[in-house]
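As a next step, the fold was encoded as tokens, giving this record:
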Amino acid sequence: MIENISKEEAKHMVELLKKKSILVKNFSDKLEKYRISGDRETYNKKFRELLEKEEIKIYGKKIE
């Protein structure tokens, strides 16, 4: 469902996505074996863990 959002909110969301995509590039190689094997549950769990660790390492806190 698409909601009406302001331009400012849209810009904020895009910036968050850009930041997170850069973080994912830093650890995507660690997830490759789960992606190839099709183990979606483990992939999602590891993804969340690695993303949080990377956010803390780079920004000093978790991005929301």
